[in-house]
Write a structure and sequence with these properties.
The complex is a heterodimer of chains A (about 250) and B (about 280). By secondary structure, chain A is of the alpha/beta class. Chain A contains ten helices and ten strands. In chain A, helix 3 crosses helix 4. In chain B, strands 1-2 form a two-stranded antiparallel ribbon. Classes of the chains: A alpha/beta (about 250), B mainly alpha (about 280).
Chain lengths: ~250, ~280
């Protein structure tokens, strides 16, 4: 029996007059890789950004509920900053801060108010090990993060999100700016990470969703078309639009 | 030759000649100042006070005065300007209010400097009763350079890529933390360049300090910011308008101009070096 960690109920979202997400109700199971797929402009990134309330920054209007571990994250009393530590995010383009690798990974801990040097060192090491980067960077932790390759930068960004101990990791097309070799490594990493954490990944790459995800959500024009086990959706889609998208008829 | 080729030939050479004309004027300008002022330059000129009715000695008090005025004005204007820029970029709401502030800043930037002098006289010297002093002069100069610092800081802050902010918000940073830990450090090289360029501007202005800080002659160096001082630009002005021995005073005025030019040039050079160094570390 899979436990649902994240539930959305009749989620609607508008940017100004544009109705971006329409009545979306899904259950995100715990410690699985959940892929969100769909053609450009279908709202998949916007949906992802609902889960850590990043849409707040661009003035989105939201109706409906999003419940994380039994708590509605759009209730007034919730601490958004706390939420964003619990729900980590990695973006499409690797976006390290213009600081050292160490400072990048320690950033979240420092803004949390942690001052204990040993604890920070330990967490930085742990987080970098989690993303298989430790051996590659342990001798140059204090070098600028921009000196890393694109793939390394992206894994460092994952480590940075990891350091503050999230329950969920949101990945917004994390490999779209990377070469095949780095992509491969990150895919392997994602599969490994689901032992510890719930993963939501938005991807343009249908094959990628097929390779690494346990569950797939297909969005089209802001609507949820289909949600289910990846193997079922990829082999016997219930909706004709899903089948057309997966076979490349549009998208 | 075809018409098209003739047109091209003419076009390029018109552009070339405009550059040459402006270069000729610049070189002529520097050359004349050096020829007229070179004779008085010496170590004593830099390190001694004027004597014998300004016909001999150096300009040390004026160098010190300009240094104090400039530094104090930047110390006042820098935090004000940078904080205003942060407000304008990061908290700029509502839009109409920000537009009014921007217009005010740009108008301020366009006000003739003598008007600043009158303003400083009315407000700092008379109303606040700071008298003719370094403080009054520096406050007047700080208003003059405020728009420069605000505009350059604003540009610097705007240039910080949005994805740095996004990454920081995504890690649970508050707006204050994003600004202090990410935006300001990333914008700092360009903010500093703007500030250093404004130092050059403050050092060279005459009109704002004429009524508020500068005196024609004082043998002693200022003991506090409530003293009046000699200053290089005003020294030049005074020698040229009130000097009764032109054959002695004019070369001293040009000599002072050379020192002032070198100072401003040096400051700009520092700004350029800082910028190049920091840009080399900047990978975004």
């Amino acid at each position: 029996m899979v436990k649902n960690l994240l539930i959305t109920e009749n989620l609607n979202l508008w940017f100004g007059e544009d109705h971006i997400l329409k009545d979306i109700s899904i259950n995100i199971p715990e410690k699985k890789v959940n892929a969100i797929i769909g053609p450009s402009g279908c709202g998949k990134s916007t949906l992802l950004r609902c889960f850590n309330r990043m849409n707040d920054l661009s003035g989105a209007r939201i109706k409906g509920n999003i419940v994380l571990g039994g708590k509605d994250i759009y209730k007034e009393k919730i601490d958004v900053y706390d939420l964003r530590m619990k729900v980590g995010m990695v973006f499409q383009k690797p976006n390290p801060f213009p600081k050292s690798i160490y400072e990048n990974v320690a950033f979240g801990l420092k803004i949390k108010g942690i001052r204990n040097k040993n604890l920070i060192n330990e967490k930085v090491e742990q987080s970098l090990k989690n993303v298989w980067l430790w051996d590659e960077v342990k001798d140059r932790l204090h070098k600028n993060a921009f000196d890393l390759s694109g793939g390394q930068q992206q894994r460092m960004c994952m480590a940075r999100a990891f350091a503050v101990g999230p329950e969920i990791l949101l990945l917004d097309e994390p490999t779209s700016a990377l070469d095949p070799k780095s992509t491969n490594k990150i895919e392997e990493l994602i599969v490994e990470l689901k032992k510890k954490i719930t993963i939501l990944i938005v991807t343009h790459n249908i094959a990628q969703a097929g390779r690494i995800s346990d569950f797939t959500t297909f969005l089209y024009l802001g609507k949820l078309i289909e949600f289910g086990k990846t193997e079922e959706i990829f082999t016997v889609p219930r909706d004709s639009r899903t089948e057309q998208y997966l076979t490349g008829k549009f998208g | 030759m075809k018409v098209r080729e003739i047109k091209e030939f003419l076009g390029i050479n018109i552009l070339r000649s405009t550059i040459i004309i402006s270069m000729v004027f610049l070189i002529l300008f520097l050359l004349l100042i050096f020829i007229k002022g070179f004779s008085v330059l010496s170590l004593d000129f830099l390190l001694k006070a004027p004597k014998n009715g300004m016909t001999e000695g150096g300009i040390f008090p004026a160098i010190v005065g300009t240094f104090y005025l400039t530094m104090l004005s930047v110390i006042i204007a820098f935090p004000l300007g940078v904080l205003s820029a942060i407000f304008l970029v990061e908290f700029g709401k509502p839009k109409w209010f920000i537009n009014i502030i921007r217009t005010a800043i740009n108008t301020l930037a366009g006000v003739p400097s003598i008007v600043y002098g009158l303003f400083g006289l009315a407000v700092f010297v008379t109303l606040f009763n700071f008298k003719v002093s370094i403080l009054s002069g520096a406050l007047t100069l700080s208003i003059l350079i405020l728009p420069i610092i605000i505009n350059s800081s604003e540009e610097a802050i705007k240039q910080v890529p949005y994805n740095f902010r996004e990454a920081a918000y995504g890690l649970g940073a508050s707006k204050r933390q994003v600004i202090i830990k990410i935006v300001i450090p990333a914008a700092l090289p360009n903010i500093l360049t703007g500030a250093i360029l404004s130092v050059g501007r403050a050092a060279g202005e005459t009109a704002p300090i004429m009524f508020t800080a500068a005196t024609f002659f004082t043998r002693r160096l200022p003991k506090s910011i409530m003293n009046e001082v000699m200053a290089m630009p005003y020294h030049i002005y005074a020698l040229m308008t009130e000097g009764s021995f032109p054959e002695k005073h004019v070369p001293i005025a040009y000599g002072t101009a050379i020192v002032l030019l070198m100072l401003v040039l040096g400051i700009n050079l520092i700004a350029i070096i800082i910028r190049t160094k920091m840009r080399r570390n900047k990978k975004w």
